Amino acid sequence: MSTKSTPREQLLGAGLRLLADLDMSVLAKSLSIAAIVDEAGLSHQTFHNVYPGSSRAEERGGKEAFVEDLLTHVSLQYSPPDEPGAQPSVELAVYFEHLISGLMRRRMIGGMIASDHAGARSSLAPEFDAMDRAAESAIRNRLRARGGSVKRPLTVTDLCTVFVALLDGLAFRETLSPGTMSAARVSEVVDSLLDWAVDPVHSDRWQGAAQQVDAPPSLEPLDPSRVDIESDVIAATEALFSEHGYFSVTLADIASASSLSVTDLKRLFPSKVDIIVAALTPEFERVLRLGRADARLEVEPVVALTRTVNRLAEFVANNRAMSSGMLLALSFEQFHEPGTVTTIREHLPVPSALVPVIESGQRRGDFATDASALELATILANNVVIRSVTRSAEPPEEVADVVLRVFLSGILSR
Fold this sequence. Notes:
The chain is built from 20 helices and 2 strands. It is an all-alpha fold and about 425 residues long. The protein folds into 4 domains: about 20-70, no CATH class; about 90-200, no CATH class; about 210-270, Arc Repressor Mutant, subunit A (Orthogonal Bundle); about 270-410, Tetracycline Repressor, domain 2 (Orthogonal Bundle), CATH 1.10.357.10. The protein has a two-stranded antiparallel ribbon. The chain is elongated. The N and C termini lie far apart (about 110 Å). This is TetR family transcriptional regulator. It holds the Pfam family TetR_N.
């Protein structure tokens, strides 16, 4: 039986090869002026007024000038969900709806055009970046809502890249076969994969519990010139928390930023909470020390309370990234890892700085309330810490003033 191709098969094969190598600018040039002016609702004369000259007369004008202008200003017609300059944030289902409602088709065509034309690449790059940021923001929001850390060897950036590619692929599939994947189903799929990818207690347990307990020795010798490695780790952690937030940072990230192996880092600090405690303890001890001095000098309770609250607000403001981590650990990890909460409360008992002052005021009759000093101190400390963390633009003295005005109005003797 003959295997020789027929002329028809040869012609079809040649056409397919040419289609695969087709320059997208050729397709753009196939647009007719009549179709363009009809779509724009303008006249042929207007077109030639805007793009004077004639390509047929070997002038750089007319349709050739229009095509070049079109490719240089090609757009996906994509608008970021928030104001210009703001961090984009959008629900995952909404983003996917945008993709399958025509954005994915424009993204694919734009990508093909950009592969052949430098001007198109430059024009489309900001829109491609904005789409990626919007999708990554939606993924990061879901990570933050879960708490915990991304399981190693993945990083948050790796995970976002994978999910953006997954969304593109699913949108492409839905574009080809409508009804294959709904936006709600995509949201469920992402949640399911995140459940697998996130370790809720930040333990980085991807090598097994036994290896975590009996960590192998480090293969890299420590630099003998590093005299205070703990301070290096604390500084690196604070920088990472400030840039990425408590939940998005893992021990592996901190180890890398500190130029340590994960094994050596865990010898110094078994968890992120241990780093927070080490960083904040000296600053908190100062608050306690100055409070004890006020007590020995018998400073009036209202004055002493005002001074101590100001010191607490200053303590949080000067250590905002670590204080935010402390607050998040207390808020979210009490259900996943109660020992974390115990560690913080034992080493950083913030209300304890206020208890002696409130007790003194109650004994003197300055504070007329039957509530326990510890309960009042806890309420006051929580308000100071939360406001200091969430109102970064407010100076410490303003935070203290606002909180005390409300608090003292409820407990001062009339």
